[in-house]
């Protein structure tokens, strides 16, 4: 398994197992444990979580099925979780909102640790930019968690470059990663400064929804039809499937992208692992870009 190096003491597997759909897929007990072990057998050591996944259930499903049953696995994996999204009803609220106050971050972190069955997480991400956040307070909360040993590294998710810069300016610890939507269906973060910012910071990216929500496989919208045609042609040349080529399209980018799988089926996750061995040419990469955007570069 190829890895994405964060610093001299920390790296993540370039394919990360996303646990967002664990509850919907009925992943619990031995089923979830078997899933985690099969991922690790493939070299996938990074597991992506968030408190809100499964309506506040997925972290506990993982903790009960994996870490409480086999605590020896903890030192062999990297756990990523997030903070800052509040679902309706959690605090008596009528709507979903983002909150990055010190109180909310601390409360969510304690709950995540208890649910996951661990006393620390390797990487904590601010899940979404909070327009009401006091960056000094948010930074203090995150730095305190690192100081207390409850979090090893801090990152962000869905942050634009100016938002990364703003939060970083208040922090003692470095923001080490930005988790963004990146796929053949969603290319805008290659051109809006996100990858430029990552290069400037010597900071890798994590891609969520790397298969674009799956619409490429059967969608009849013009973008999906164009992409499917081009991806099938390229895939045939490599003797593989279009999902492997979609992952390979991300992995070839020099910014260093780790892809978060969205499936709980390990046979489909293998497609992402296989993509690590495919290096698309410039021409192939641009063919896919052109099919996605519907026009060629100038």
From TrEMBL:
> Origin organism of this chain?
Mediterraneibacter hominis
Its lineage opens with: Bacteria, Bacillati, Bacillota, Clostridia, Lachnospirales
User: Molecular function (GO) terms listed?
Assistant: oxidoreductase activity
Q: What PANTHER family does the annotation carry?
A: NADH-SPECIFIC METHYLGLYOXAL REDUCTASE-RELATED, OXIDOREDUCTASE YDHF
Write down the InterPro entries for this protein, in alphabetical order: AKR, AKR_Detox_Biosynth, Aldo/ket_reductase_CS, NAD(P)_OxRdtase_dom_sf, NADP_OxRdtase_dom
Q: What positions does the domain NADP-dependent oxidoreductase occupy?
A: 18-290
Q: Which GO terms describe its cellular component?
A: cytosol
| PROSITE patterns linked | ALDOKETO_REDUCTASE_2
**Annotated protein name in UniProt:** Aldo/keto reductase
